Amino acid sequence: MSDGSAAAAVADAHRREWTFVLAATVRVARDIDLAEECVQDAYASALRTWARDGVPANPAAWLVTTARNRALDVLRREQTLRGKLPLLVDPEPSYQSSDVDGDGGEAFGVPDDRLRLIFTCCHPALAREAQVALTLRLVCGVSTSDIAAAFLVTEPTMAARVTRAKKKIAAARIPYRVPQPAELPDRLDAVLTVIHLLYTTGHTAPSGGALVRLDLVARAVELARVLRLLMPDEREVRGLLALLLLGDARRATRTDEAGKLLLLEDQDRSRWDANAIGEAHELVVGALRGGSAGRFGLQAAIAAVHAQAPSYADTDWVEVLGLYDELLRVWPSPVVALNRAVAVAMVRGPQAGLDELTVLSADGRLAGYRYLPAARADLLRRLGRAVEAADAYQEALVLTENDAERAFLSARLAAL
Amino acid sequence: MASYLILIYEQETELTGDEFVELMNQHNAFPAAIERHGGKLVGGKALQPTPTATSIRGDVVTDGPFVETKEALGGYYLIEADDLDQALRIAKECPAPRGGVEVRPIWEFDE
């Protein structure tokens, strides 16, 4: 076997199996930091061993066994410390498998370890930015320098953030466990919010040249898929996956060849990914069935109405507005109210939409939010009130750092 | 088991007689809540209000609390719990009607 193909196999196993390998190793290491170190060592030794002996039949099993053996070695060497390590793993696993002997055999195919890792990283005792960083580092195996680049902070800053969060998990004994049913809705919402945040950060990079950071988008979709696999009955998980798929289905049409931003109404709908839209549609149906839907299911339903419309004008805006009314009820966020105002304008005319925006501006919570003046500018433009529209575009430009969005706003301003 | 300190931060407004009785009843019921969640009560005390506090920084002795805040430390419970989730379930039931609580893990040193 050549070094190159072994390296490719290791890279592939890193991409596919990292979460699984780390989650299974934490169970033995009882400490996330130690587990992470052992998993990194296991990948490094795979690079040497696989080049020499060939890629094993089950790369994940090989990696788990290697990482667990290394963890057990460390624990044996530090026997005195062992009693003092926090017991990360629930002594009564809710699913099955208490395979702690390190042979890696029976744990395979048991999904709860990956879920444990995800819920630990998104624990509400951690700040949101720490949840996001930990999820990328531990669940996705993304390097600290890549995470730092994605969130526009320096590598030492991001490394410190990850280290602080891991210390808190150990010191405060944040458990390595899937939450109890009574706590699950809130805890799951935090997980879904983190995945959605990864996606939106990738989808509209807050500043810089490219509109989309593909890797973050792909990671978010992958995570949503894993969660859907592990929690098939959770409707909001279906809703989130559908929402991400629908956003991603339009990716190719969001900018033109020159990288210029195209609004929903100007996008070439024939180039939307029909397969992704079809998959999302089925998920939305499942997310809305049985009782009142959650915020991710409703957002996905709105995106699905758009995805199925032949054109912007021929969109079922009454349906969209009804879904926004429901969304605002379950999730009273000013950003939702802003999007609802756009639907109001489509159903009842731009003046009615503008009236909604006036109420929203007065409430003050959206001060500094670039899409508020941008939406106002658009409605004023459609009402023929060019001078006021120009002021609103200027206001939006001051708040916008993304190059593609700036170019769009400048073009609209110039065309007034 | 791990140890956690539940710090009670509340506004120091004057309580009516009825409010005081109600608050004491809530505190008297708290040990049972700790047990119900599987934790253990190790200790707990109420503090005299911040006007009775004296602070020392370096050699300088001053009147009042170390940090002036809208909600002041008014008491604590020391508990044992399996993990943070259990400690938080317990702390959610800790009476603090005019403020809230902070949960801090106790630093265990190797002997």
Note the main attributes of this structure:
heterodimer, A: 416 residues, mainly alpha, Rna Polymerase Sigma Factor, Chain: A, 19 helices, 0% strand, elongated, B: 111 residues, alpha+beta, Alpha-Beta Plaits, 4-stranded antiparallel β-sheet, two-stranded antiparallel ribbon
How does this model look, in words?
The complex is a heterodimer of chains A (416) and B (111). With 416 residues, chain A is mainly alpha-helical. Among the domains of chain A are: 3-82, Orthogonal Bundle (Rna Polymerase Sigma Factor, Chain: A), CATH 1.10.1740.10; 115-175 and 184-231, no CATH class. Chain A is 67% helix and 0% strand. Chain A has 19 helices and no strands. Chain A starts with a helix and ends with a helix. Chain B has 111 residues and is of the alpha+beta class. Helices cover 25% and strands 37% of the residues of chain B. Chain B is built from two helices and six strands. Chain B has a four-stranded antiparallel sheet with strand order 2-5-1-6. In chain B, strands 3-4 form a two-stranded antiparallel sheet. Chain B is flat, with a radius of gyration of 16 Å. In chain B, 18% of the residues are buried. The mean pLDDT of chain B is 94. The A-B interface holds A 84, 86, 123, 125, 171-175, 177, 179, 183 and B 2, 82-85, 88, 103, 105, 107-108, 110.
Classified by CATH, the class of chain B is: Alpha Beta
What does the radius of gyration of chain A come to?
24 Å
| End-to-end C-alpha gap of chain B | 17 Å
Mean pLDDT of chain B: 94
Order of helices and strands of chain A: HHHHHHHHHHHHHHHHHHH
* Estimated share of beta-strand residues of chain B: 35-45%
Find the biggest chain interface.
A-B, 12 and 11 residues
Q: Structural class from helices and strands of chain B? A: alpha+beta
